[in-house]
Amino acid sequence: MRKRFSFVLLLSCLFLNIFSGIVLAEKIELSFWHAMGGGTTGVIQRMVEDFNYTHPDIEVSVQYKGSYRETVNAAIAAARQGTPPSVIQSFEVGTRQNVDSGIFVPFEDLLVEGEVNWDDFLDPVLNYYRVDGKLYSMPFNSSNAILYYNKDMFAKAGLDPGNPPTTFEGIREASQLIVDKGLAKTGTTWALHSWFYEEWMANLGQNLVNKENGRAGFADNAYLTSDKSLRIIKWWKELYDNGLWVNAGIENWSQARQNFVSKQAAMLITSTSSVTSLSNEGRGQGFEVGTAPMPIPEGQERNGAVIGGASLWILKNKDETVEQAAKEFVKWMSLPENQVRWHKATGYFPIRKSAVDLLKLEGWFEDYPNYKTAFEQLQSTKIVRPTQGALIGRFAEVRTIIEKAVEAVLNDNGSIEDIMEQANKDIKKSLEEYNRVIK
After folding, report:
1. H or E segment at 345?
2. Structural domain spans, the chain
3. H or E element that contains 135
4. Domain 145-306+391-438 belongs to what topology?
5. What are the pLDDT digits (tens) for 382-432?
6. How far is CA 271 from CA 23, 196, 285, 300, in A?
7. Which of 124, 144, 186, 327 suits a disulfide with 246, CB 3.0-4.6 Å?
8. Cα separation of 152 and 143, whole Å?
9. Superfamily of domain 27-143+307-369
């Protein structure tokens, strides 16, 4: 009897130890740093919570780290101190710097063959993030710039609210009519941001920098004085001089948005990521918002858009299990159903064909046509160097140089040609310094 009791006790202890090992096994802890502020922070938080719920062996902690620049800089500093986060969200123009930093694991290096069906991803999206034929990060929140307009104001001005302007000339004419009729203080607005200039350069088929836009080698010069560049700047300046475009300030997205929502401007150029919020805010202010593709000069061939937004980067870790868990998290964030959810909540377009199919199946684009504009603009984009996007180090600094040059043009601080030539020289100096350090 005593032996039987001892045997039962032994078995009980064995099963308890096994059960305890399962229950008490330590989770793999990941940290995810992102740059999505405002209401989008909550969307990210809920998605991470859902991942944690469906992956009981992994626990992701999520933290908003400020702007894209601040997020990347914080990650680089943490990596140097030996305490890197597991995954970060980095803007598209940080790609060259991220690759050269050496602190990230190329995403494709973590995959086994066939683990991800890359045929399901939209070509222009993958086209941007491939460097020397390798995908270093997983695309996540992809965008391009589009035109938003006040359909009610257009109708009052005698303009067709179903036929918004798609050319530089059309923007100028519509703006002039709206101002002349006293419907708004100005025709259009956008933040004084290099991104829009870059989008126009690509759409006109003009590389931003040499070495095939930095894709065939380290770029060391820019094309700010090209005919197409000067055409963009001269149009921009003409709008400003005639009171048809209001300067919201360098990278002042919120002020540009406020100019539009408050009906001070009839049109706004900004990211497709604002479709959901701007449509809602417009309704709250008593007007309907419409969307249209980026305007280009009349008679100019349309090449399409450069991908904006950001991708997810996995940082190197001494523990391979952490890198593999990070890979699972990044893959999960790109699942079709999650891309549909993300698109509806924000306006960033889905990066997977199957996600687009799901949206079409439910009639999403027919019911909410404002979301269709950016996607159609992306679909019609030609796969050429200008639309692949520039790949350069110190991109943030280059943007600052361009923005200050545009500001100098607006303020009549010299001729357009001289100002853009000096900006070219400043960019050349910056790129050459970066290249010397990297090489």
Report:
1. helix 336-346
2. 27-143+307-369, 145-306+391-438
3. strand 134-135
4. D-Maltodextrin-Binding Protein; domain 2 (3.40.190)
5. 999 999 999 999 999 999 999 999 999 999 999 999 999 999 999 999 999
6. 46, 9, 20, 22
7. 186
8. 26
9. Periplasmic binding protein-like II (3.40.190.10)
